[in-house]
Amino acid sequence: MTASSNSHFTQPLLKTPFHERARALSQVDSFIPWAGYTTVDVFTTVEQEYFAIRNATTLYDLTPMVKYRVAGRDAQSYLNRLVTRDIGKLKPGRVAYCVWCNDAGHLIDDGTVFRLGESEYRICTAQRQLDWLLDSSIGFEVEVSEITEQVAALALQGPTSCAVLRDAGLTGVDRLKVFEIGRFTLDSRAVTVSRTGFTGDLGYELWMEPQDAEAVWDALMAAGGPRGIRPIGSRALNVARIEAGFLSPNVDFVSADHTIRIGTDRSPLELGLGWIVDFNKGHFTGRRALLEEKRCGAKRRLVGLDIEGNKPAHNALLYRDITGKREIGSVSSAVWSPTCKRNVALAMVEAPYFEIGSYIWAEIYLSRELVWERRMSRAQVVERPFFAPERRRATPPGQF
Amino acid sequence: MSHAPSPSRYDCVVIGAGHNGLVCAALLARAGRSVLVLEAGTQVGGAAITREFCPGFKVSAGAHLLHLMPAELLRTLKLESHGLQWAAQRLPTTALISGAPALKLSDGAAADGLTSADAAALGAYQDRMQRFAAAIAPIFSRTPPRLGTDAWSDRLSLLRMGWQIRKLGRRDMRELLRIGGMNVHDLLEENFESAALKGALGFDAILGANFGPRSPGTVLTLLYRLAAESAAGSSGLSQPKGGMGALCDALAKAAGAAGAVIRTQSAVAGILVDSDRACGVLLESGERIGARQVISNADPKTTFLKLLGTAHLDAGFVRRVNHIRCRGLAAKIHLALNRPPPFTAVSEAALRGRLLSAPSLEHLEHAYNHSKYGEFSASPAMEITVPSINDATLAPAGRHVLSAIVQYAPYALKQGWGRGRQAFLDTSLDVLEALAPGLRGCIAAAEVLTPADLETQFRSSGGHWHHGDLAFDQILMVRPVPGAAQYRTPVEGLFLCGAGCHPGGGVMGIAGRNAAQQVLSEATTS
Question: What is the pTM of this model?
Answer without folding.
Answer: 0.94
